[in-house]
Amino acid sequence: MLNVFVIFMLVCIVVLLFVAVFNEYYQQRLGVSCMPTTPKVRARIMELITEFVQKGHKNIVELGCGWGGMARDATKQFPDLTITGVEKSLFPYLVSKLRAWGNTTNIRYRNIYDFDLKNTDIVLCYLSNQHMAGLEEKMKNELKPGSVVISSTFVFADKEPSKTVTVEGLYETKIYIYKF
Questions:
Q1: Tens digit of pLDDT for each residue in 138-151?
Q2: Per-residue model confidence (pLDDT) at position 27
């Protein structure tokens, strides 16, 4: 019985090490780690989405959806809308896919710069300043007039937000809303 336990523990350790190394590889390759949005910030973003849904926005894309929490919450709150999460880091993508199983959330394994945004009404992102700078021109070119970008923490370099919301908590988090 002890041998089975030891083998089980060794397998668990090997799997965890594999996941950690694989995740680190993707973090280095993509230049960002998958950090989940805090529940308080996520709740405030859901409130902001509600305002735009009431104005007719129906297609939501989360660029860099990480572990899939925001996309899953959006699907729960807005079951009639099209919610798509885009992730390029393999392990978080797989976790997002599992979390989306059984609901209508679409999770895509793609580079955020290659994902077509032309039918998107609302873009959600919690990325980095580097990624936001790379996405600014793409969004100007692809988003249809009236589309909205809701970004947690990070800003576009050359575009002023139409609204900034502050969420108090352990850390003060700013949410930036951009209209295109």
A1: 999 999 999 999 99
A2: 56
162 vs 138: CA distance, rounded Å:
19
pLDDT of the residue at 36: 74
117 exposure class (CB count in 10 Å sphere: 0-12, 13-18, 19+): buried
- What dihedral do alpha carbons 146, 147, 151, 157 form, nearest 10°? -70
pTM of this prediction exceeds 0.90:
no
